[in-house]
């Protein structure tokens, strides 16, 4: 009788261990993917800011030229 109980305990502990290892592995993969997506979003955000800043700079240059032209007359 104790042989069946010990086999059951061993099987249960092995199953739980395999489950924990699998969960940790899957969780690490998920975390890596989320971190990579965050990096991609940061790069995209930087590109948008760069484009916006260039647009603002261009508008400021146009306004400066216009102001210089008006002050020159």
Automatic annotation (TrEMBL):
Q: Where is it located?
A: Mitochondrion
Superkingdom of this entry's organism? Eukaryota
Q: Which Gene Ontology BP annotations are present?
A: mitochondrial respiratory chain complex IV assembly
Q: Which GO terms describe its cellular component?
A: mitochondrion
Name the InterPro entries for this protein.
Answer: Pet117
* Record's keyword terms, sorted: Mitochondrion, Transit peptide
Membership in a protein family: Belongs to the PET117 family.
This protein is called PET117 polypeptide
Organism expressing this protein natively: Helicoverpa armigera
Q: What is the taxonomic lineage of the source species?
A: Eukaryota, Metazoa, Ecdysozoa, Arthropoda, Hexapoda
């Amino acid at each position: 009788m104790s042989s069946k109980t010990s086999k059951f305990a061993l099987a249960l502990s092995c199953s739980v261990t395999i489950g924990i290892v699998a969960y940790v592995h899957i969780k690490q993969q998920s975390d890596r993917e989320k971190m990579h997506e965050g990096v991609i979003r940061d790069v995209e955000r930087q590109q948008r800011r760069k484009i916006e800043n260039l647009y603002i700079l261009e508008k400021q240059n146009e306004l400066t030229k216009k102001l210089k032209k008006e002050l020159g007359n």
